[in-house]
């Protein structure tokens, strides 16, 4: 560290030359000129003090007949007749800047090591761009969800070296999720909902288990009795129900973890019932009791096998019956559903981990004779109300349907891989998941700008995988009864879409809709039904060759 120098210029130390008579007074200090020496002893030294050439006491040197400190004399810096430039001081025999108290010389300039981000605590010790130097320590401005650990901002919710707090490291191989180290060997995924959750009409396509994933001995649709063991997770046909999302979800998670040198074993079990609204599936119903029985059996069987077990999530595929019933409180129902599962699971397992809910938006309301539906917006609202517990995986309009409501076998497995992406991001990587949805919608004149939450930019308007229903699925409405038409839809940046209207709107309650309106009676899917063409550029590799881009959710949002 550089030597701190006092504010005054360095003092020139003058030698006390001996007098001719052998005694010294203030008036009898003398010299013999440039080459001579005084005849008396200097009063500042004892009889045995060392002297330099010319008779000056060390470490002084004689320059121009005077004893000087060449380490600090600006006129003789480092040697006689070596003056420093004007304004510079002599520091340890070298000309440099004379700095004031609390400062040091770094690169020829006076700096305060306490606050200078280029010399924080020591010369040339620079803080990262945008990081402040406070009390000689680089202190970045951390985001609200981050903590300052040492000189780095970390997220204690997912940082394996600072899990839940600074310097709290997870054991090797354990991820940090929700601020807790997850030491689990068997991860239980509960699946509920109506017919789409049980594989209604979906031909079986997953007939082998390539990893260690399991179901109960009674199969994926496990029920609540006879749960006496585990078998490899495959899909089975019972005469009307086949491929569920279980294999697609579990196997892609395992594949992605294997690709990075890890493993992730999932127990998947479904307990939904076709054609049933939330009221027939919630806590207190027989299907919910079957789910609780599956958790109870999971705890016991894992203990017998010596495996650390926890319920990690609930996957819901639901909404059609509540659409038909006109449920205006579906968002509140989803929040209660998740909360009930988490409370009951923790009571059975004693696990510290939360039990988040993953769900997809309903996309098939046109098959029920409706042009619009409230349910997709309610599903999005629930996720926004509890972004730490409820996650919208995405819509389903880009998937293949067998009858306009139920997915093909490939479609069910494909949907399962979408669940896998969200599950892995939240429960393995410990990162937030947000669907492709608007962050803000603003208007200036006739131009409406929609800024999106995009996990993998840039945005793309894709007419190959989904046919264009008109304006790429976007609509503009207001209360005038005659809102201006959309004249153009264009990408204005990697996360931005701009709608140019035919005229500046004058009505109130201005809103932008996307994939929100369809033709009553037509099938859902990528060429019919309520749909849109906006997606991101996610390059996650499917195990089965599916594209796994994140498609924009159904929405109906106000212009701010």
Structural class: alpha+beta
Kindly report how far apart the N and C termini lie: 55 Å
Which strand-content bin applies to the residues? 15-25%
Q: Give the overall average pLDDT.
A: 90
Helix residue percentage: 10-25%
Count of DSSP strands: 28
Residue runs with pLDDT of under 50 for 5 or more positions: 1-49
Summarize the structure.
With 560 residues, the protein is α+β, with helices and mostly antiparallel strands. It contains seven helices and 28 strands. A five-stranded parallel β-sheet has the order 16-13-17-18-19, with helices on both faces. Strands 20-21-25-24 form a four-stranded antiparallel β-sheet, with no helix packed on it.
Describe the structure.
This protein is of the alpha+beta class. Helix content is 17%, strand content 21%.
Output the keywords:
alpha+beta; single chain; disordered N terminus; 560 residues; 5-stranded parallel sheet
Draw up the topology in text.
Elements: E1 61-63, E2 66-68, E3 88-91, E4 94-97, E5 104-106, E6 109-111, E7 132-134, E8 137-139, E9 147-149, E10 152-154, E11 176-177, E12 180-181, E13 186-193, H1 195-198, E14 214-216, E15 230-232, H2 246-259, E16 266-270, H3 286-305, E17 309-317, H4 320-324, H5 330-349, E18 357-360, H6 375-385, E19 390-394, H7 409-427, E20 437-444, E21 447-453, E22 460-461, E23 474-477, E24 486-493, E25 496-501, E26 511-514, E27 534-535, E28 555-558
Parallel strand pairs: 13-16, 13-17, 17-18, 18-19
Antiparallel strand pairs: 1-2, 3-4, 5-6, 7-8, 9-10, 11-12, 14-15, 20-21, 21-25, 22-27, 23-26, 24-25, 26-28
Helix pairs in contact: 2-7, 3-5, 5-6
């Amino acid at each position: 560290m550089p030597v701190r120098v006092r504010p005054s210029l360095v003092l020139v130390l003058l030698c006390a030359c001996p007098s001719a008579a052998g005694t010294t007074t203030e008036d009898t200090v003398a010299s013999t000129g440039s080459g001579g020496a005084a005849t008396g002893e200097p009063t500042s030294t004892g009889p045995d003090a060392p002297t330099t050439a010319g008779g000056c006491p060390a470490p002084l040197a004689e320059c121009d007949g005077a004893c000087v400190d060449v380490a600090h004399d600006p006129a003789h810096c480092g040697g006689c007749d070596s003056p420093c430039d004007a304004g510079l001081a002599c520091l340890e025999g070298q000309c440099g800047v004379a700095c004031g108290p609390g400062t040091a010389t770094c690169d020829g300039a006076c700096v305060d090591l306490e606050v200078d981000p280029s010399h924080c605590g020591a010369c040339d010790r620079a803080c990262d761009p945008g990081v402040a130097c406070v009390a000689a320590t680089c202190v970045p401005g951390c985001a609200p969800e981050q903590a300052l650990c040492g000189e780095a901002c970390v997220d204690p919710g997912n940082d394996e070296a600072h899990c839940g707090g600074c310097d709290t490291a997870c054991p090797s191989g354990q991820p940090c999720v929700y601020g807790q180290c997850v030491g689990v060997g068997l991860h239980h995924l509960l699946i509920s909902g109506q017919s789409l959750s049980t594989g209604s009409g979906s031909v079986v396509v997953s007939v082998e288990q390539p990893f260690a994933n399991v179901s109960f001995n009674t199969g994926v649709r496990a029920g609540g009795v006879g749960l006496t063991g585990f078998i490899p997770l495959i899909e089975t046909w019972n005469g009307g129900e086949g491929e569920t999302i279980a294999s697609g979800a579990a196997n892609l998670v395992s594949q992605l973890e294997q690709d990075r040198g890890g493993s992730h074993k999932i127990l998947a079990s479904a307990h939904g019932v076709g054609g049933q609204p939330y009221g027939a599936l919630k806590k207190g119903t027989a299907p919910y009791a079957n789910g609780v029985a599956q958790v109870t059996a999971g705890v016991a069987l894992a203990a017998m096998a010596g495996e650390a077990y926890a319920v990690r999530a609930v996957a819901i595929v639901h909404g059609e019956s509540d659409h038909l019933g006109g449920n205006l409180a579906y968002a509140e129902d989803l929040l209660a559903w998740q909360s009930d599962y988490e409370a009951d699971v923790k009571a059975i397992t004693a696990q510290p981990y939360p039990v988040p809910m993953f769900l997809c938006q309903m996309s098939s309301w046109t098959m029920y004779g409706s042009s619009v539906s409230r349910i997709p917006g309610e599903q999005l609202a629930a996720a926004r109300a509890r972004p730490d517990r409820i996650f919208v995986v995405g819509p389903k309009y880009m998937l293949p349907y067998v009858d306009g409501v139920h997915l093909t076998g490939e479609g069910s497995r494909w949907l399962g891989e979408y669940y896998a992406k969200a599950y892995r991001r939240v429960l393995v990587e410990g990162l937030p998941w947000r669907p492709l949805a608007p962050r803000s919608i603003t208007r200036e004149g006739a131009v409406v700008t929609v800024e999106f939450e995009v996990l993998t930019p840039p945005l793309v308007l894709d007419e190959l995988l989904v046919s264009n229903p008109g304006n790429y699925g976007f609509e503009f409405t207001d209360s005038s009864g005659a809102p201006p038409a959309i004249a153009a839809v264009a990408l204005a940046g990697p996360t931005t879409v701009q709608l140019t209207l035919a005229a500046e709107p004058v009505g109130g309650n201005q809103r932008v809709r996307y994939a929100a309106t369809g033709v009553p009676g037509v099938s859902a899917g990528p060429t019919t039904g309520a749909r849109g063409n906006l997606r991101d550029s996610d390059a996650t590799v499917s195990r089965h060759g599916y594209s796994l881009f994140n498609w924009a959710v159904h929405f109906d949002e106000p212009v701010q």
